[in-house]
Backbone:
């Protein structure tokens, strides 16, 4: 499997599909500890990404991610818009102009995305935010890629599985950043919606390569 | 869910269109991206004031656009902050060259989007200052939280900073006055019922018939704790105590008392709350010199209220009394 621009566009298309399919689920997660808008905003944002991709088809994976970043930043709103916008922008920058994403480059892009989210949102692991999905994902991808024998697909799988486990692991946490933090102890027992949507995005990357 | 809407996805656009038509003498509505500006913006030589945030808090912010208050309001989707591609053109539209003050309620989304827009505006040659409003005593303020939320005090910051800009104060002075209001105001709210976000379709939290949420924000998020229903005086005492303690109100202080409705509580009940709050302040020896009662920063159709107390000085009082001509606040004109 080669992670080229066609794979990237397919990934983003599957992200849009996942946000539409899980819209209500994300709204429900956010209703519990936030303000019921996450699923709606992500769905609207990724639908706009699809429009942009067909309007001006990108030539490289990096260009596709940059287009995604700018669109999410201008269409999503809330905290998720700037955070995902920054994540995709940093990933795009780390990929540069290359036509294909090598396993190590994917790991590097995830680490760059994670660092961007941390820089913008000032959250740390354990704060019950999307950082709790991106940090294990970036680490898992980096370990899988360092192995050298792993192909692209297994690096994608490692990242997606780590993100999913990270999202599940936010359930018992007490939120210290974002809107759920206003609930204090009452935020425990609910999954962080941003970590959940992050896991969907990284799972879509696997599906695009399958 | 029963709401006077056509399509959940069109709520903000259609509402803003109606607002623009109803108040065509005061404002201009720009579409794609959506923002509302004062009819005569930019006002030559005047510092521009821009605020914004999620929709669903009407009349905040568009209802406060006009002479003596905001120059522009930027509405996001319901309970979702607006995006930099809206905030940036609104900032340019009200910049006369004297610079622009962004009044931002302290929520992660609002802060991030306004911060991005301010950076872009600065890069394009506009001097921007940001006043962050965080008056909600329900939230513990520490390094480990997102900090206190901007709630009722926002209205007072917008009015008073708006009056400072209108009288010709410079950029740094207007921002400093806004910050002075923020540091002298505290707020606490209660919900008797949740609200329903149009696209979500069900109430934002579940509250039994005999329960209330103390310490709510303005987005339908649950509060700090839940208690059995009490009478108006009891609830007022609960809200006011932390406000007065945090502000350190003592005998001889002059204050503005603001009882704000969350959208679904009748004015008659807000006055019952006001009556008790004024009595408590009088017992403390504080002089309630100015007042505001009504639905000014709401959470859709939520039942409940918030109580804000602002410590006044001569200048803040004079700026509060200055003429204002907006859709939702109007006096002296």
Residues:
């Amino acid at each position: 499997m080669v992670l080229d621009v066609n794979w990237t566009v397919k990934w983003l298309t599957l992200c849009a599909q996942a946000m539409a399919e899980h819209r209500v689920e994300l709204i429900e997660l956010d209703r519990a500890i936030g303000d019921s808008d996450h699923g709606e905003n992500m769905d609207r944002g990724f639908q706009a990404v699809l429009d942009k991709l067909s309007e001006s088809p990108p030539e490289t994976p990096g260009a596709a991610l940059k287009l995604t970043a700018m669109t999410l930043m201008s269409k999503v709103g809330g905290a998720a818009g700037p955070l995902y916008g920054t994540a995709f922008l940093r990933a795009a920058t780390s990929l540069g102009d290359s036509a294909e994403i090598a396993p190590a480059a994917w790991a590097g892009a995830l680490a760059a995305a994670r660092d961007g989210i941390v820089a913008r949102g000032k959250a740390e692991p354990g704060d019950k935010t999307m950082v709790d999905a991106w940090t294990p994902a970036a680490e898992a991808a980096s370990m899988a890629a360092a192995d050298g024998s792993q192909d692209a697909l297994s690096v994608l799988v490692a990242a997606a599985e780590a993100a999913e486990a990270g999202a599940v692991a936010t359930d018992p946490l007490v939120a210290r950043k974002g809107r759920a933090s206003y609930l204090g102890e009452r935020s425990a027992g609910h999954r962080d919606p941003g970590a959940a949507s992050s896991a969907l995005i990284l799972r879509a990357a696997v599906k695009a390569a399958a | 869910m029963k709401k006077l809407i056509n399509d959940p996805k069109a709520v903000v656009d259609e509402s803003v269109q109606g607002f623009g038509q109803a108040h065509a003498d005061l404002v201009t509505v720009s579409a794609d991206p959506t923002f509302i500006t004062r009819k005569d913006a930019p006002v030559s030589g005047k510092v521009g004031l821009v605020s914004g945030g999620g929709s669903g808090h009407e009349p905040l912010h568009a209802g406060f656009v006009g002479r003596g208050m905001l120059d522009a309001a930027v509405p996001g989707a319901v309970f979702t902050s607006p995006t930099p591609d809206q905030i940036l053109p609104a900032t340019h539209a009200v910049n006369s060259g004297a610079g622009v003050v962004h009044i931002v309620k302290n929520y992660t989304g609002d802060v991030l989007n306004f911060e991005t827009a301010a950076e872009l505006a600065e890069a394009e040659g506009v001097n921007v200052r940001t006043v962050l409003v965080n008056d909600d005593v329900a939230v513990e303020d520490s390094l480990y939280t997102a900090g206190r939320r901007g709630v009722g005090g926002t209205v007072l910051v917008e009015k008073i900073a708006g009056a400072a800009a209108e009288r010709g104060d410079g950029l740094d002075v207007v921002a400093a006055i806004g910050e002075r209001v923020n540091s002298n105001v505290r707020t606490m709210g209660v919900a008797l019922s949740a609200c329903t976000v149009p696209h979500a379709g069900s109430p934002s939290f579940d509250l039994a018939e005999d329960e209330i949420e103390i310490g709510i924000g303005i987005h339908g998020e649950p509060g700090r704790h839940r208690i059995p229903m009490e009478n108006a005086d009891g609830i007022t005492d609960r809200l006011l105590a932390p406000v007065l303690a945090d502000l350190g109100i003592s005998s001889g202080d002059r204050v503005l008392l603001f009882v704000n409705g969350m959208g679904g509580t009748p004015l008659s009940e807000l006055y019952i709350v006001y009556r008790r709050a004024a009595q408590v302040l009088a017992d403390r020896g504080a002089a309630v010199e100015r007042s505001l009662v009504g639905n000014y920063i709401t959470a859709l159709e939520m039942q409940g209220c918030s109580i804000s107390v602002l410590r006044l000085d001569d200048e803040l009082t004079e700026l509060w009394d200055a003429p204002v001509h907006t859709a939702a606040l109007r006096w002296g004109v």
Remarks:
- The CA atoms of residues 129 and 195 of chain A lie 6 Å apart.
- Chain A touches chain B through 32 residues (CB under 8 Å).
- The mean pLDDT of chain A is 94.
- The longest helix of chain A spans residues 103-121.
